[in-house]
Amino acid sequence: MTRVLVPVGVLLVAAAVTLAVLQPWSSVAESPDADKKPVTVNAELTTLTSDLRINGTLSYGASIALPGRGGTITRLPAAGDVIGVGRALYEVDGKPVIAMRGDRPFWRDLGIGVEDGPDVRQLEQALADLGFGKDMTIDDEFTGVTEANVKAWQKSLGVTKDGVVKLGDVVAITAASVRVEKVTAKLGDSAGASPLTYTSTALRVVAKLSDAQAREILPATAVTIVLPDGTEVPATVTAVDPGGQPTEKEGETTPPTANIEFADPAVAEGIGLRAVKVVFATSEVKDALVVPVTALVATTDGGYAVDVLRKKGKVERVAVEVGLIADTRVQIVGGDLAAGDAVVVAQ
User: Fold this and answer.
1) Which of 4, 19, 45, 181 is at a distance of 20 to 30 A from 332, taking alpha carbons?
2) Contact indicator for 63, 199 with CB cutoff of 8 Å
3) Which residues contact 128 (CB under 8 A, 6 or more apart)?
4) DSSP codes, 279-304
5) CB-count exposure of residue 129 (10 Å: 0-12, 13-18, 19+)
6) Alpha carbon distance 347, 345 (integer Å)
7) What is the pLDDT of residues 235-277, one digit of tens each?
8) DSSP class of 336
9) Phi-psi region of 228 (alpha: psi -120 to 50; beta: other; left: phi over 0)
């Protein structure tokens, strides 16, 4: 798994300073109170992970405006509708405007006699994908075979079988289906303006980053998403946008962001576009001897110790060295302490 390169030493120093300065549970002058039964937790061997947690938001991705065309709008979808390739996105002058798979917009009428071009290849591939590719070679030439397949496709739609795909009859989309985000027109409007915006159908997470994080976090980094109900699910960073693009507000630019996709997008269905946590594992120690942070006692020499409950109720103060600190736990890397020893924790 690709790791995020965060300077762990800085984290440890900062954590140690915090422990030394902000310790409501202990002081260098204190020692165990023999009159009270101490509260203890056993030291344990475990995998200790230090995490970087970033706020994220569930999203369907970038919003794309559907291009306009001539005519009058006679039917519209509803926000939230999912429309696949080969289906009508909306209707103009009583005729469907069909979604077709493609990476570039269609820019001209396509029929017999048109010059060879990549839009012909895109149309032929889309027709073949829809099951209308009989005897057709996928290339840049619009042939009689292409025309025959266009007519067969037009017949299936119930429109005029003239073998010509007119500009505006189809719209290229880059996925197998899209989700209608917002309908911006109403029935009877001119179709010249964009009638709707659409997005991807798959939920993903968009997380805002600092400039430093945008430089350190790499695509293909494995992360964990914590959903609003606390469920933790695996995901992967698919892209990092460094930001810096102008916004509608003067003098403001877009922030750096990470796009993150779920291993199984179904885990986020029905949640809504809510806030989540993105967890990056920055450091990991296997078989670490771990105790709660509240077991640490600052010593007069600037070090640390723990109070260990020995046999017959005797409490022994043991000098220790600390390693990785993560959340409320700390790794013990030196000192007379073993897994299973009962360490006293602050009450």
Assistant:
1) 4
2) yes
3) 136, 138, 149
4) EEEEEEEEEEEEEEGGGEEE-TTS-E
5) middle
6) 6
7) 999 999 999 888 878 888 889 999 999 999 889 988 889 999 9
8) S
9) alpha
| pLDDT for the residue 21 | 37
Cβ–Cβ < 8 Å for 217, 232: no
* pLDDT number for residue 26: 43
CA-CA distance, 88 to 77, in Å (whole number)? 9
Task: For the chain of 347 residues, list the mean pLDDT of each consecutive stretch of 10.
Answer: 41 41 41 69 92 92 92 96 96 96 95 97 97 97 98 96 96 94 96 95 93 90 94 95 87 91 91 92 88 94 93 92 88 94 90
Query: Closest Cα to residue 183, out of 81, 59, 58, 71?
Result: 81
- φ and ψ at 20, to 5 degrees? -70, -35
Encode 291-311: b = buried (16+ Cβ within 10 Å), e = exposed.
Answer: bbbbbbbbeeeebbbbbbbee
Task: List the strands of the sheet with 82-84, edge to edge.
Answer: 64-65, 196-199, 177-183, 82-84
CB-CB neighbours of 169 under 10 Å: 20
Task: Report d(CA 138, CA 122) in Å as an integer.
Answer: 8
pTM: 0.65
Q: How far is CA 92 from CA 159, 169, 183, 259, in A?
A: 12, 9, 15, 35
Buried b (16+ CB within 10 A) or exposed e, 39-75: ebeebeeeebbbbbebebebbbbeebebbbbebebee
Coil, strand, or helix at residue 232?
Answer: strand
What's the rounded Cα separation, in Å, for the pair 14 and 9? 8
Q: Is 17 helix (H, G, I), strand (E, B) or coil?
A: helix
3-class secondary-structure state, position 153? helix
